[in-house]
Amino acid sequence: MAISEYTKKIILVDDEKDIRDVLEITLADMGYHVFAAGNGKQALELFRTEMPQIVITDIKMPGMDGIEILRNIKNENPDTEVIMITGHGDTDLAIKSLKYEAIDFITKPISDDALEIALKRANEKIITRRQLRKYTESLEKLLREKSELQDHLSSLGIMIGSISHGIKGLLTRLDGGVYLVESAHTNKEYDDIGEGLDILKETVTRIKKMVLDILYYAKERDLKLEKVNVLQFAGDVAVVIEQKIDDQHIEFHRDFGQDNIECEMDAEFFHSALINILDNAIDACTEDRSKASHKIIFSIRQDNENVIFEIHDNGIGMDTKTKENIFNLFYSSKGSKGTGFGLFISNDIIKQHRGTINVNSVAEKGTYFNIKIPKQHIENK
Ligand SMILES: Nc1ncnc2c1ncn2[C@@H]1O[C@H](COP(=O)(O)OP(=O)(O)OP(=O)(O)O)[C@@H](O)[C@H]1O
Ligand SMILES: [Mg+2]
């Protein structure tokens, strides 16, 4: 059997110098690197510094005997294999040494064959143990991967369920829209066609958003960072929102200041992060029946390192339970009108930008979002 690097070192313990010398030559011939010791104390010192995989020790020695050396070694490193050298009539001691987990014993006078067999046995055990450890490690890795896969599958299941539920709601709305258009057309009540078309348009926009959300969620993408003129960027965001609230009684106020701010960001991603938050502000205002007028304020500020986006609305606000859950995937209080993707994705995008998002909300009063991102992207936080 080939002797690996690992097993090359052997500590040989015998109080008789002649035996030590002969054995040392034989073992060296077999390819081992031998460290010889004349007593137990010396043997244990060598054992600690050289950390061999195999020790060969005489059983009967003055002072610390072989059994004691064996016990000490097994105590310090149970993986070390110890071969005992016994004299004629030492059967009891030999059996005792097996009890303390010596791998084998050879009787004096030592024949090369007996030595070789004992060493073969020790090496085989060392190799088997090493393989077993490797198998255990890969088994553990497999088990970990399996449990990760299960987690993935179960969240995939939840996601598919939730998406299907959302799609079902949207299809029902599409059906409703088509029905309105069809019946207006059949009855030649052309004025009513507009109402049906509005439903169709709004539903198609929502399907689009949902598909984009799913695509974002399904694909982990690195940020495409670029230097962005913040005023211009926020202007583009504002235009989208202004178009959305065009025919709703909500006042939209831009509070951008005059500062020319530059910020490193993935404009496409960050755009959707802010749109999600502003969309929610619109929903919160539309749903609120308790106030005569509604207002959304979109502001930009900066400090030395960061750009700060703030979004105020005086919509329905949130209760404590909602506040605790808003960033959770699929959390939505909007029934079939929401999927619960929005803030989960916004939060993710802001975190990717090494930014922070904070919320302050009072039920029935309104909500305030504060989003802060560094002007200069920080690679690792
Ligand atoms: N400005 C806000 N005012 C009141 N409640 C809010 C506001 N923003 C978020 N929420 C609450 O947080 C929940 C989660 O928001 P999120 O944007 O993640 O999902 P959603 O709007 O319900 O659905 P989606 O955005 O996927 O269409 C909302 O359902 C709502 O209850
Ligand atoms: Mg939303």
Keywords:
five-stranded parallel sheet; 10 helices; alpha/beta; 3 domains; Rossmann fold; Heat Shock Protein 90; 381 residues; single chain; binds adenosine-5'-triphosphate; binds magnesium ion; 19% strand; five-stranded mixed sheet
Report the sheet-strand fraction.
15-25%
Q: For the record, what is the CATH homologous superfamily label of the largest domain?
A: Histidine kinase-like ATPase, C-terminal domain
Number of domains: 3
Order of helices and strands: EHEHEHEHEHHEHEEHEEHHEE
Strand order of the largest sheet: 2-1-3-4-5
Total strands: the figure is 12
CATH fold-level assignment of the largest domain = Heat Shock Protein 90
What profile does the largest beta sheet have? 5 strands, parallel
Description:
This protein is an alpha/beta fold and 381 residues long. It folds into 3 domains: 103 residues, Rossmann fold, CATH 3.40.50; 72 residues; 149 residues, Histidine kinase-like ATPase, C-terminal domain (Heat Shock Protein 90, 2-Layer Sandwich). The strands form 3 sheets. Strands 2-1-3-4-5 form a 5-stranded parallel beta sheet, with helices on both faces. Strands 7-9-10-12-11 form a 5-stranded mixed beta sheet, with helices on one face. It is elongated. The chain starts with 8 loop residues before the first strand and ends in a 7-residue tail after the last strand. The mean pLDDT is 91. The structure holds adenosine-5'-triphosphate (ATP) and magnesium ion. The site of adenosine-5'-triphosphate has 23 residues, from helix 8 and helix 10.
